[in-house]
Design brief:
This protein is mainly alpha-helical. It has helices spanning 2-41, 44-77, 80-114, 121-150, 167-171, 174-205, 209-244, 246-252, 286-292, 302-313, 322-352, and strands at 155-158, 161-164, 264-271, 276-283.
Amino acid sequence: MEILLARIQFAATSTYHFFFVPLTLGLVLLVAIIQTRYVQTGDEKFKKMTKFWGNLFLINFAMGVVTGIVQEFQFGMNWSGYSRYVGDIFGAPLAVEALLAFFIESTFIGIWVFGWERLGKKAHLTCIWLVAIASNLSAVWILIANSFMQNPLGYEIANGRAQMIDFPALITNPHFLYQFPHVFSAGLCTGAFFIMGVSAWHLFKGSDIDFFKTSFKYGATAGFIAVILVVGIGHFQGQHLVQEQPMKMAAAEAHWETADPADFVIFAGIDEKNRANSAEIKIPGLLSFMSYNSFTGEVKGLNDLQAEMEARHGPGNYTPPVAVNFWSFRVMVGAGLLMLLLALLALIFRGNIDKR
């Protein structure tokens, strides 16, 4: 029961924290781009846009900070055994994130907020770009820590604890090389859709039409580019996981039996007790294509992977909850395709918005 409660508490904190993180990562980049346009053109509309969207960024940034602090405490309180065992490795990138990236970020946010009309335009612009770079640098170090959890490298076990022996291996983890571009593009996508949503609402209400037309255009352009990047990078990240974490991907696909070619299951009744599906709706060969860019190719199933894990680690259930992973993956893919459609419509609408 204690473990279940710890999981629920940490999941709630992480979910609430991550409502704000990708939004701030993407929104600050767009604020920096808009302020750059103000410095280039001297157009007061861009200054007004910078302040409007910058204030919304600051609110979300503050929420991300306070929820992140709670999460830091939970590493030690909820998962103290884990923290003791890998703290020498897992704690290093978290410390660098706090002492380097977050210090830069928080310092120049303060200068940017209070520097209007006190600093020169270019110096003030430099501040918001430093905030944007440092915000995403924070994500770099957090994802390095997470990538160690997914694919442990650069360590040895000594005196019953994991100790770092290769820092370059830690920061060049192949898992990180896929994770960061995906998170970066997802953040840009979130920020762009946030701007589009707020702008569309104000346009619908008929308030400050010229201001929100321009904002919508910036959001539509950035959103379309970002969605394409999210989908493309996510595809290659999935292929990496097929090689490095085949059990995870097999669970997300409810793929029980090894097959070549492997079919993609759109819908299925999942029977985890008997380790089988019923009433499947499938697309032949698509899972092989998603895994190898070819409609042929062996994709290992959960039953064979379970047997391999038992042979390697001893008896036990090594299969993740399949139904949860299967349906959440399809919700994610469906949401991604819907965003791609909305971004395309927004880009088309962007060209006609001045005709209104």
